[in-house]
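Students often ask why inverse folding is considered easier than folding. One informal answer: many sequences map to the same fold, so there is more than one right answer. In these notes we will look at a single instance of the problem. The structure comes first.
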C-alpha cells in the first residue's frame, strides 16, 4: 500500500479478527480485532451482509481524509459523488478496497490505566469504531472526517 497518496492516509494497520458479536442487531456485527503487532485493539461495527467476516481472518485497514489517488481534497463533494466525474468517474482509493465508509471522529481520550495510550472513537452513520493503542500510532487521527477502507 506504499503507493497510496501518503498525504491523505492517516492510519494503516493489519488486524486479526479475534471475536464477532452479532446478537444485538440483524445486519450488524461488532468485530473485536488486534493489530498484527499486538499494539492496537479495534472494535468495529460492520454490516455483515455487505462484508461477511470470520474469526481468524486478517483485515487491512486504512483511514484517509480523501479518496482521491493524488491526495487532493474532495472539495465539498458528497463522498458518494467523488467517483462520479464528467468522464464517467475516476479511479479512487475505494476501488482498491472491499468495504468503505465515511464518518466523523468524535472523541479522543487518554487511557487512564496505561501511560502513552489513547482511545479514538469514530462514527460511520451509527456504525462505531473504537481504536485503543499507542499515542504515537493514533495521534494523526485528530481530524473531523475520515474514510474507513478495509480489505481482506
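Output (designed amino acids):
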Amino acid at each position: 500500500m506504499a503507493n497510496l497518496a501518503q498525504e491523505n492516509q492517516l492510519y494503516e494497520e493489519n488486524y486479526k479478527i479475534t471475536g464477532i458479536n452479532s446478537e444485538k442487531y440483524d445486519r450488524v456485527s461488532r468485530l473485536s480485532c488486534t493489530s498484527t503487532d499486538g499494539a492496537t485493539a479495534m472494535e468495529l461495527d460492520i454490516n455483515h451482509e455487505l462484508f461477511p467476516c470470520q474469526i481468524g481472518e486478517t483485515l487491512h485497514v486504512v483511514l484517509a481524509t480523501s479518496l482521491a489517488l493524488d491526495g487532493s481534497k474532495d472539495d465539498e463533494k458528497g463522498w458518494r459523488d467523488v467517483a462520479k466525474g464528467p468522464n464517467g468517474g475516476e479511479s479512487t482509493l475505494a476501488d482498491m478496497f472491499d468495504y468503505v465508509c465515511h464518518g466523523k471522529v468524535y472523541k479522543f481520550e487518554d487511557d487512564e490505566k496505561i501511560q502513552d495510550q489513547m482511545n479514538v472513537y469514530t462514527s460511520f452513520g451509527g456504525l462505531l469504531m473504537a481504536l485503543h493503542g499507542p499515542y504515537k500510532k493514533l495521534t494523526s487521527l485528530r481530524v473531523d472526517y475520515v474514510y474507513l477502507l478495509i480489505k481482506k
